[in-house]
């Protein structure tokens, strides 16, 4: 585990902090300012709890049951009960990194001093994360409104020493046993604390932040594979000239064109070998790669703005304000996050689609400008990469289904008190699948394009230095080059890992310089 430490304070948390905690096991510390803010807001809640007037979440029931005033002797039971009853998730377990992001982001909001939670509860949340204890959270149970309720409830249940959790060794055990093994005392929830632990957009936000990190790598990787495909197809790099993109000044388009141009620098293949089949222009999937990749990049930038705003937010209901008021609000509604999660699924699907079209062009002897059918060694005896493209096409088709927006749906809950919901958790879950699929799609294009570039090199043409670096690194990673048919799945798996881990970008940057 990475021993980098993330300090949780009263100000916004960064996306890098989320990834460090969720994926790399960074340790967490509460700042002095956070502890002071927690204590101050708790004094406000305690004062309100002592008054006869009902305050939502402090001395009342929840949701459609908010009209019932709860007497002091039942309030601890009320907080325990909301956690137990709301821990009603079903389906497969959610990935460890998602649960860690969920817990960390809830701690971030708790530490803001706007929730009324005691400092010792926040410290226990940090202790559980630092111990590598991961609550068992299930796929289904959040509507993306009133918080990611069921997922967060399963996390709160672990803090109480109830339910199941995964230890740092990966074994699932009763949460109480895991807490005891790490010297962590279960929390005894008091007024408002159960509600405060459940009421946030933390799951969908954590998945958004991690998807953005993954997509940044995949968009740069797709610029590289588009350049390799252009080169293998003997296309022209003139369409990447900066002056052409300056007259349509979408920022991402210019970035993608520049990335491709730097990958192709020094190529002996681009634009010089078209005498056998003269072309005035390359096909759209080749010529318009910067426009498609760039539009996706601009979408990532917008989604990052939304994520940044949400990371700077304190999402709870009710909230404790600095002037001592405790006010109900609707900030838990996941619409801002849900919309960009769906938007990212759309652009990811389109990026996958254009990658697949270039792969198909590389394999079709009628459109590949002299490459062998399916890049096969002995076409007819060998099928080459024919079925690799089938696999890629199946992934693209799935991506299109995943691009259907979840946020366009809503279903009423809590006896019509919560009558419009965001479905942001669902948008986040399908985006994770889409990102996984996109990595595989880019990997198939990479595998086909590098094979095609090697075939051109064997004919005496000289690929760009960056292309040669990509080919060499991919082959060293276990994805083999041209030759007779062989068991192809291991090669594709190696290419997938190569792309997913950022190794394609790392392979070419010593030649191109840093790519955006």
TrEMBL record:
It comes from the Bacteria. Pfam families: Lyase_aromatic. Keywords: Cytoplasm, Histidine metabolism, Lyase. Pathway: Amino-acid degradation; L-histidine degradation into L-glutamate; N-formimidoyl-L-glutamate from L-histidine: step 1/3. Signal peptide: none annotated. The modification 2,3-didehydroalanine (Ser) is found at residue 146. One of its GO terms (molecular function) is phenylalanine ammonia-lyase activity. Its EC number is 4.3.1.3. CDD domains: PAL-HAL. Its main location: cytoplasm. It catalyses: L-histidine = trans-urocanate + NH4(+). Belongs to the PAL/histidase family. This is Histidine ammonia-lyase.
């Amino acid at each position: 585990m990475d021993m980098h430490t993330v300090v949780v304070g009263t100000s916004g948390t960064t996306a890098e902090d989320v990834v460090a905690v969720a994926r790399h096991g960074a340790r967490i510390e509460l700042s002095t300012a956070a502890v002071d803010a927690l204590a101050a807001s708790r004094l406000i809640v305690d004062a309100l709890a002592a008054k006869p007037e009902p305050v939502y979440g402090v001395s009342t029931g929840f949701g459609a049951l908010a009209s019932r005033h709860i007497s002091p002797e039942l309030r601890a039971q009320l907080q325990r009960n909301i956690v137990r009853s709301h821990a009603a998730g079903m389906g497969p377990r959610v990935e460890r990194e998602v649960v860690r992001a969920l817990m960390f982001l809830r701690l971030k909001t708790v530490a803001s001093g706007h929730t009324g939670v005691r400092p010792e509860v926040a410290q226990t949340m940090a202790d559980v994360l630092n111990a590598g204890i991961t609550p068992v959270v299930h796929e289904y149970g959040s509507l993306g409104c009133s918080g990611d309720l069921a997922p967060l409830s399963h996390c709160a249940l672990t803090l109480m020493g109830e339910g199941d959790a995964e230890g740092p060794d990966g074994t699932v055990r009763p949460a109480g046993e895991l807490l005891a093994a790490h010297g962590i005392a279960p929390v005894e929830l008091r007024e408002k604390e159960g509600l405060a632990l459940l009421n946030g957009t933390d799951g969908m936000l954590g998945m958004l932040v991690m998807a953005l990190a993954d997509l940044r790598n995949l968009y740069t990787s797709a610029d590289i594979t588009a350049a390799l495909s252009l080169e293998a197809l003997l296309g022209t790099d003139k369409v990447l000239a900066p002056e052409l993109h300056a007259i349509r000044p979408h920022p991402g388009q210019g970035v993608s064109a520049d990335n491709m141009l730097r990958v192709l620098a020094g190529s002996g293949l681009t634009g010089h070998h078209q005498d056998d089949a003269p072309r005035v222009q390359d096909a759209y999937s080749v010529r318009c790669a910067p426009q498609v990749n760039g539009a996706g990049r601009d979408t990532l930038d917008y989604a990052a703005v939304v994520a940044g705003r949400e990371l700077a937010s304190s999402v709870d209901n009710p909230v404790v304000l600095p002037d001592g008021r405790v006010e109900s609000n609707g900030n838990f509604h996941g619409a801002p996050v849900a919309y960009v999660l769906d938007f990212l699924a759309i652009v990811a699907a389109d990026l996958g689609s254009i990658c697949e079209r270039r792969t198909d062009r590389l394999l079709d002897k009628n459109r590949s400008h002299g490459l062998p059918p399916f890049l096969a060694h002995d076409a007819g005896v060998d099928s080459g990469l024919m079925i690799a493209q089938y696999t890629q096409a199946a992934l693209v088709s799935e991506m299109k289904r995943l691009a259907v927006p979840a946020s366009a749906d809503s279903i009423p809950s809590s006896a019509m008190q919560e009558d419009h919901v965001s479905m942001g958790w669902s948008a986040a879950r399908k985006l994770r699948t889409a990102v996984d699929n996109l990595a595989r799609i880019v990997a198939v294009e990479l595998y086909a394009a590098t094979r095609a570039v090697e075939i051109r090199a064997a004919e005496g043409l000289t690929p760009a230095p960056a292309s040669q670096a990509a080919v060499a690194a991919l082959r060293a990673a276990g994805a083999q080059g041209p030759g007779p048919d062989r068991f192809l799945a291991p090669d594709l798996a190696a290419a997938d890992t190569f792309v997913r881990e950022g190794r394609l970008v790392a392979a070419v940057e010593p030649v191109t310089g840093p790519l955006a």
